[in-house]
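Fold this complex.
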Amino acid sequence: MNRDRTKMLLGYLLTFLIIITLNFFIPRLMPGDPFTSLSSEEGDITVIYSEEQIERYKRYYGMDRPIAEQYIGYLKNLLKGNLGYSIYYNQEVVSILKNRVPWTVAIVICSLIISSFLGTILGSISAWFRNSKLDKILYISMVFISEVPAFLMGILLLFFMAGRWGLFPLSGGMSMFTQYSTKCEVILDILHHAILPVMTLSIAKLGEFYLISRSSMLSVMSKDYMKTARGKGLKSRRILFRHGLKNSILPVITRIFLSLGSIFGQAVLIENIFNYPGIGTLMRQGVMVRDYVLIQGIFLFVAITVLTMNFIADLIYKKLDSRVR
Amino acid sequence: MSNLGKFAIVIIIVIIVLGILSPLISRHPHNLPSGSALESPSWEHWLGTDDLGIDIWAQICHGARASTFVGAGTALLAGVGGSIVGMLSGYLGGDSDRIIMRISDMAMALPDMPTTIILGAFFGPSLKNIIIAISLYSWVAPARLVRSKVLAIKEENYMKAAKSYGANFWHMTKVHFLPQVLPLIAVSMIRLFSKAVVVEAGLSFLGLGDPTSKSWGVILHHAINFKGIYFTEYWKWWLVSPVFIMMSFTTSLAIISRELERLWNGKIEWI
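Structure:
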């Protein structure tokens, strides 16, 4: 058991190291560099910088040193928690991330909670009333929802609910240039802006959780202890929640952690649709202006978050399910 | 196959034909203005025109080309490549299997959209490079499916018999593995197809795709970034048509893959 865990941990550490290494090399192989991004033609140097200035900046950022030396320097800085200095924003990457990450994490967590909660309930109901009309309608609509690309859903929600009907703000995470009288108003304003992105992400994930919880509940319902519970004359609500849900919830919980990778990916797109000030919009900006250091920082953050969550999912699964040992 | 499945197949065929025959089907060019700006749908311009006066029907038809190209390319590259890797991994077993599975763990941990954005920026966002970028992490699903099936087949008694006759890898693949694995490969290729179309559209929608490709995502990008889209009537044809065609395309592909799964009934466990 313990040996298994160290082996798993070593595997994850190896993955970390490889991702960090890739993260270091990929931007250095990218075509173009920040000095030429402003000009229209490939390889053309903008008039803003002279040759000497470029040389000076390259020295300043350590671009003129051999690649192995740069790599070791990069690793050392990472260990100190230093992700470098963004060329475009003229700010430490860590402090930019600090401002942006809470927005993304907030909408991701909210939508995971909403979609897993709703999905589990609907899935359990569907399994409970198996083959009824309700089950069939739920099943078909959930399959449909899970196949519609999330960003199309986002565009439709943005267009109708925000654009045509004006129920929600069109973009941003807070209203600009407004005076708030109380703290409560600030919170309401932030919530008001977050509703559409959270709704899109929740809808995108709902079908997945519904299907998992439905099939898990179906398999639990065929077990003997469910028959016993029914034979004891327990109320059906008690059977559903006490005996059924408790045993069928495990796949849903592990899926919550495992789906963090895909939900971060979808959040990148959806933030851009709603112009939400999270790391998704930051990433697009970074690629547009070819800000290597910033892109590296974002990618590293996302990759490490996802890997950590996968690791936790593994641990939880092993802890909760005594069969996996 | 149910009527729904047949209907889905018809839609996919129609869209692919639209893409292949786009210059014949649309009377107007997809890249040059052919009327005044922002015309509403008429006999001359079936789906109206955009802000530059370019026919939207022609753009949709031409967009089918770019989108299906990316989809088919990814399905072939990642589907066939992943299946070969999975088959080798399952057949060889041992250390090579362990290494391949470790690599696939890593590829699976990469969040898809951010990775595509970064790789697309790194290779340069042409359609071919987008195919390569998507394939780099999406070969995992077919590889794992095929591997687990091959592992199961290897345990069968007839395989042991075949081995005792001295059957080599190619013979076993041809006679035993491929016929049983092909349905799995087909279904995962359809999934890859639709995933790639969606990812490419998302990338183009962000303005990070190939700006010259004029895929559906690019049309959508222009439509939603048009200043007056929210308070004018233009959205009815300019915004709705790319959204509609993409939705019908992806849902049709999903229906087909589910139908095939049901038909073959080969208890496909998705990883």
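The domain at 99-320 of chain A is CATH 1.10.3720.10 (MetI-like fold).
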